[in-house]
Design goal:
By secondary structure, the chain is mainly alpha-helical. The chain has helices spanning about 10-40, 80, 85-100, 100-105, 140-145, 160-175, 185-190, 205-215, 230-235, 240-250, 260-265, 285-305, and strands spanning about 70-75, 200. Helices cover about 45% and strands about 0% of the residues. Mean pLDDT is about 80; it is low at about 50-60 and about 305-310.
């Protein structure tokens, strides 16, 4: 029907124009979808890189969850082995310095480490003979490592073995070319500190394991039974016999006398299961109560030891 209005050549011209318009519209859409967002992101300020999330268990990275380790004995250090700066001690001291001291004191010990900014007082310059808090000698530096310097960022390194501390002392002294004033008498007196028995490093277990073992070892006692002589006064003065049993568990001083029982019970009434009225008991009533509690606890322990739990 359209051939009645336009000839074939005109129809081709119109179709060509339509295709051009449609193509332009498609290009505009692609530009808006692809190019414009890219230009917008290119002008956006750079964002800080995201911190990657570390997966898995914290393990030894948690200071309270270090792996279990058995204790061991550290043999005594002979003074003649540590009072002189041997190559082996200096090498060990350098390794310890890089690990523990470099961040504050700097690579050359000049007090210019990356962590020194803002510290007051500033870290010690080991190359300078001036301003040493305790002195630059071997005994003085060793004492600083052992005790730290109160009021400063210098903490105690008493967890290091004695030989490692001496290695660090020698390396610190090697960073300054001045005389450190170590006289023979002072070194001889200092050397006697090592003429002692060796050190014992205790066992270490993580906090979660320690807590689990404490839970396993702790068994709350069953409520006391108010039976026999004194049962009536025990029921009158105690509102919770389970709490009374827990308050008496593991303590032995209250067994000595009625007076000792009163000293043990009264400070924690009523949390320990006793009623506040127990404070008004007479000496005779404390004597009866004491005898009743001793009998009840003994009966409970005997029953637990013979047959386990009571029915």
């Amino acid at each position: 029907m359209i051939e009645q209005y336009v000839d074939a050549a005109e129809l081709r011209r119109l179709l060509s124009a339509l295709l051009v318009v449609v193509g332009v519209i498609l290009l505009a859409c692609l530009f808006a979808v692809i190019v414009v967002p890219g230009l917008r992101n290119a002008n956006r300020p750079a964002a800080a890189p995201a911190v990657p999330v570390v997966g898995g268990e914290t393990g030894w990275l948690d200071p309270a969850e270090y792996p279990p380790a058995r204790g061991y004995d550290v043999p005594p250090v002979r003074p003649e082995e540590v009072l002189s700066a041997t190559p082996a001690l200096l090498a060990r001291g350098r390794a310890l310095f890089e690990q523990n001291c470099r961040s504050c004191h700097g690579p050359e010990g000049r007090g210019d480490g990356p962590a020194a900014q803002g510290l007051a007082p500033p870290p010690r310059d080991f190359a300078s003979p001036q301003g040493w808090k305790n002195g630059p000698g071997i005994p003085e530096i060793y004492r600083t490592l052992e005790k730290g310097i109160p009021g400063s960022s210098m903490g105690a390194y008493d967890y290091l073995p004695a030989k490692d501390r001496m290695a660090l002392v020698h390396y610190v002294q090697s960073l300054g070319s001045f005389s450190h004033g170590d006289g023979p008498e002072a070194l001889e007196a200092f050397g006697r500190q090592f003429a002692t028995a060796g050190e014992r490093v205790p066992n270490k277990i993580p906090v979660t394991l320690a807590a689990a073992r404490l839970r396993e070892e702790f068994r709350p006692p069953e409520p006391l039974r108010a039976e026999g002589p004194g049962a009536e006064i025990l029921r009158e003065e105690a509102w919770d016999l389970a709490r009374v049993a827990l308050a008496l568990q593991g303590a032995q001083t209250w067994r000595k006398s009625p007076e000792a029982l009163a000293e043990h019970v009264l400070p924690s009434v009523p949390e320990n299961g006793f009623r506040p009225r127990v404070a008004a008991c007479s000496a005779e009533e404390w004597t009866i109560l004491h005898a009743a509690l001793v009998a009840a606890v003994d009966r409970d322990e005997k029953g637990g030891g013979e047959g386990g739990k009571r029915s």
